[in-house]
Amino acid sequence: MPTDGMPLTSTPHPAHRDANVLRWLTAYALSLIGDAACLVALGFAAQEVAGPAQVGMVMAAGAVPRALLMLGGGVVADRFGPGKVVVGSDAVRCAIVLGIAAALWLTSPGLWLLVVGAVLFGVVDALFMPAVGALPPQLAALDQIGRIQGLRMLVIRISWIVGPPLGGLAMAYGGAAAALGAAGLLFALSVPLLMALRLRPLPADDQSGAVAPSAWGELVDGLRYIRRHRVIGPLMVSGAMSELGTNGLLTVGLVLLTKDQGWGPSGYGWIVGAFGLGQAVCAALLAVKGRVARAGLVQNVMLVVGSASVGALAFMPTLSAAVGMSLLSGLLCGMCGGLAIALIQTSAAPGYLGRVTSAMSLTGVGLTPLSFPLFGAAISAWGAQPVFVIGAAFSTLGAVAGLSSAAVRRAELPRLPGRKHTGQPAAGPAQTPSRAS
User: Which residues, in sequence order, are CB contacts of 228 under 8 Å at separation 6+?
Assistant: First the structure.
C-alpha cells in the first residue's frame, strides 16, 4: 500500500519491546488516568457547591471547546511538529489542574472557577490529543504501527479501569483538591517521558509543501486531503458512521436496556465489562501480532459483524447471553478499530498527520456525545429493540462505504523488505532520531 513518502526504516525491536514506544505508552497512560481522575474530581467538586444541573455543566464545559478546537489542534501539530506541541500542551494541562487544586485547597471558590478551569483544560486538550495521537509514525517504523495501535487500545482500556477509582479514592481521603492534585502529579510525570522521546524526523513531501499561509487555509487543505485520499477518506466516513451508530447504544442504550430487562446496574456493569474485556484481548493480540493480512478487507468485514452483534444485544433473552454477545462485540469492534487507525496513519502523508489524527478524534470526542440525547429520546418513544437495530444498521452502512472503495479493500499494513517480501519499495536510509522537545 502506498505510504505517501513515509519512510519504511527498520527498528531493532518490535514495538512492545521498544523502550521509545514504551515511554510514549507510559506517558499516554499517565495522561489518560489523569483525565479520568480529573473528570471525577470536577464532578464531585461541582456537587459540593451547586446542584445536579451545574454538575452536568461543569463536566461538559471541557468537552465543548475540545470538540470545537480539535481540528485546529491538528493544524498546530502539523505546523510546529507534534513533539513540541505534545510536550508544551501537557505541561500547560498540568499547570491548570494543579492551579485549580491549589485554589480548592486554600479557599472555597465558587462554581465559576470549576467552569473556567474545565474550559481551559478542554482548550489545551484540543492541542494535546491530536499531537499525542500523531506521534506513532515518528516512534518506530511503519511496519510497527499495528502493534503500537494495539498497545494504545490496551492502555486506554486499562486507564479507564484505573482512573475513576483512583479519583474516587483521592476524593474520599482528601476531597476534590487531593484528587485534582493527584491528576496534576500524573501529568507532571508524563512530561519528562514525552521530552525523552526520540522522534524520527518526518520527510518533507510535495503535498504539504504548498500549504496555505493561514491556519484556516491549512485546515481546509487538510480536510480536502482527507476527502480526496482513496484510503483515508472512506475509512474516515466508515469510522464516523460506526461511532455515531454504536456509541449511543453502548452508553445510553445499555443503561435503558438493562433497566427495562430488570438486570439493573450490576447487569450493566457486567455487559460493559465484557465489551471492554473483548477490546482488551483484541488489543493485546494486535500488539503481539502487529500485522493482519488484507487489513482493509478484514477491518470492514469485522465492522459489519461487530455492528450486527451490538444490535443483537437488545434481543438477548438473559443477562448471561447479553454478556456473551457483548464480549463478542468487543472482540470484533476492538480489532476493526485498531486496524482502521493503523491503516489511516500508515497511509497519511507526513505533513498531514496532525490534521488526520484530529479528524479521527473529532467524531468520538465531539460529535458522538451530541447523539446521546437523541438515542435516549428514541428509546423512550419506540423501545430499545428498534433503536438498536437502526443504530447497528447505520454503523453497517459505514462498513459498506469502506468496502465500496477498491483501495480500501486492497489496503495492507506495511511490512519491511528483508523480513518477508511484499512488493514494498526498498527502505531508505535510517533517519537520525531527535528529541521530542
Answer: none
- Quick check: 83 and 135 in contact, CB under 8 A? yes
Are 309 and 396 in the same domain? yes
Average pLDDT over residues 352-366: 83
Q: Residue 254: which domain range?
A: 226-410
Tens of pLDDT, residue by residue over 228-256, are 999 999 999 999 899 889 988 988 899 88
Closest CA to 410 of 255, 299, 248: 299
Q: What pLDDT does residue 35 have?
A: 87
Question: In the predicted model, what is the mean pLDDT of the chain?
Answer: 83
- Does 48 lie in the same domain as 189? yes
Residue where the block lists cell 487500545: 153
Cα distance from N-terminal residue to C-terminal residue, the chain? 31
Counting the structural domains of the chain, the total is 2
Same domain for 264 and 365, yes or no, is: yes
Tell me how long the chain is: 437
* Spatial distance between the Cα atoms of 151 and 284, rounded to a whole number of angstroms: 7
- 212 within a domain of the structure (yes/no): no
Can you give the CATH number for the domain in which 286 is found?
1.20.1250.20
Residue 151 located in a structural domain: no
Q: Output the CA angle 24-30-32, nearest 5 degrees.
A: 100
Taking the mean position of all CA atoms in its chain, how far away is CA 67? Answer: 13
Please answer whether residues 372 and 98 qualify as being in contact, where contact means their C-beta atoms are separated by less than 8 angstroms: no
The per-residue pLDDT for range 176-212, each reduced to its tens digit, is 888 899 999 999 999 999 999 998 876 655 444 444 4
Co-location of 271 and 175 in the same domain: no
Residues 279 and 178 in one domain: no
Share of the chain above pLDDT 70, in %: 86
Summarize pLDDT for 256-276 with one digit per residue, the tens: 898 889 998 888 888 988 888
Q: How large is the C-alpha radius of gyration of the chain?
A: 21
